[in-house]
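hey team, just a heads up i'm posting the complex here instead of the shared drive bc the drive is being weird again. everything in one block, sequence lines first with there labels, then the predicted structure for the whole assembly after. its two chains so it's a bit long, scroll down
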Amino acid sequence: MARKDNHTTASKLLIYPLLAFFVLMAVLPFLYMVSLSLQSDAEMFSGQVVVIPESLQFSNYVTIWEKAPFARFMLNSLIVAGTITLLHVLFDPLIGYVFAKMEFPGKRLMFVSLLATLMIPFFIRLIPLYVMTAEMGLLNTYPGLILPFAMSAFGIFLMRQFIMPIPDDLVAAARLDGASEFRIFIDIILPQLKPAIATLALLTFVFQFNEFIWPLVAVSSESMRPITTGLTLFNQEFFTQWNLTAVGGMLLFLPCFLLFVIMQRYFVQSVMLSGMK
Amino acid sequence: MTYKTRRTLTAYAFLSPAIVYFLIYFFWPIAIEFWASFRSGQPLIGDSAFVGLKNYAHILNDRLAIKAIKATLIYAIGSVVFTLVLALGLSALLVGPVRARNGIRAILFFPYIISFVISALMWRAILDPYTGLLNAALAKVGLPQQFWLVDPDTAIWTLIAVSVWKDLGYAVLIYIAAIQGIPAHLYEAARMDGARRHHLFRDITLPLLMPTTLFLAVVIMITSLQEMALPYLMTQGGPANATRLYSLHVYETAFQGLNIGYASALSFAMFMLILLITWAQFKLLHRDIRHV
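-- predicted structure starts here --
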């Protein structure tokens, strides 16, 4: 809008400090996390707020592994988030394809029911899911952490949105040639879906890596905790050790940050495409 | 077997894992929760008896639940209003000729993808009344110490601020996409008629953004009504239950009080409310889209 208008100097003097403020606020917790993670215990407990540590205490990054089983927490997170991501990559494109390009009785009803699941708050399912998981003997296990998220309408919907623009003629021609639906999916749809699937994988991984509520409920043994709930356990036990908590925060933050930087453009695109959280 | 039947069967075969999965993990739990919400004792895990609407009626006598509902409404409405107003302003700036605007958008979007655990822990560190960065900064400019999350009067607003911080970039992103979708000729025509910049914004941009605004209001409202991780991690519902949001109340009723039947009724009441709000907002969205 109004792109050709030139801002006056006065408005520039107003706009840039304002934008700078919001940018600073957006990154402040992360800058502070980096700062905290490099502070010595003496600085932590000095009673003064330290912004830039006197000498960078990289040993915090070593100490933390001795204070709590972070390697185990990290492994748990990677196994759970990784498996869920794999399941989504296997199933979501196929089911998205069915809704995008195939006609069958009950399609509309099924699609609407699928979308309706997006409106079901997780905490509505929380109690029954807990009881179901307990009855199956899956509390404190990887399957118990994975199964409630093994599929979601979001991924299927996202894949459908990416498959819809692929020309129907292409699919119809293959059908006329006698190709099976599965062949069409593998040979025609999948190759065009690579960036979309990468996006799906990233989104799924980031959200699952950060999942907090379900492991809080379904895991009671320390050794099965993912890093999210592992970190809060750590934070409660060493309550004032903000420097070590911040190192733990860095461990949780870095994998997602790297993925975000690599995939930022696709990520933004998919959020806008789906228009959903 | 006709060609059509075969294709239908293929479709169902592809869908079958998903059908089974969604029935087990989505629809069955809801049905179970609905059933449990009419029972006392320990439905789902032990002996229970049918009590009709007693659990639902009890919500009105549950002082903590009422307090939680109020706090949740303040939290949800506050989050929606502040996020949308700020996002609208920022996106209006960021479609203009601003340096590094793509970089600024990316940075603003950043908090949205960061885990609640990190956000909550680091904001707690920043907001600590004695050792926190924020009060230290206030002291530098001569302002008095604030008890952000410790004072029952300010705690909920502090929580709202953190939630706005988290969602702002998402709202900006959606707004920018919407603003860029507005046909340029509308602005050109208005400018030929001598309209000024702020008129263009008020009379063209703002009305045409109504569907987007409603969409964002729906999404942020619904997620805020369900918020649990943020209060759990930042305040545990305190001080004096000032930030005990509804889902946290449900969680504690179910998993600490082990009052499953009542917790189910609490959940279901919220489910109904969310459905109602979603329905109302969809109506508004549709009406608005027709008018545009």
